[in-house]
Amino acid sequence: MSDKISGVILAGGLGRRMGGVDKGLQLLDGRPMVSWVIERLAPQVDDLRINANQNRAAYESFGYPVFADDIPEFAGPLAGLHAALQRASHPLVATAPCDSPFLPADLVARLHAGMLAKGADLAVARTFEQVHPVFCLCRRDLLASLADYLAGGGRRIDRWHASLDVAIVSFDDEAEAFSNINTAEELAASRSRPCRPVDE
To answer: What is the pTM of this model?
Structure first.
């Protein structure tokens, strides 16, 4: 890929469905979930950062820059993307959530190919009928558009996307890679599906 890409792991939520704990720091096979995401996403991008609104020191221990939302009161994943676009070192920004430790090893390459094929502003993953908007590759110059949307009180990703040229990229062949872990029950179930290093 000729365009350089900044990667951002979104770990800025409150984890309400997991009892208010920080999801990215919950253990899966003896390691925090975010460490599995780092292992899979870092090789796909030119630099990596973590968006976290809590437990900054814990996230910094993984060796990557950490930043919080600029919009207060846990405004959702778009607030994390907004902060990421302001800090990105490169023209493109790829995002993935901290609670998806099985994400595809070819996520960014396929999103990039889809973006180029359509000449789109932004590319997102889809498995069958489900779109996964937080698995995203977008142009850094969308910052002004997103800032205006958020300043007007917008929070829903789909409504912002409706104003853009979006490439929807199929990952039907890797649907299980998009399994995310939102509850304690899902975390327990995932422990019976151990993560594996990317190169295995």
So the answer is: 0.89
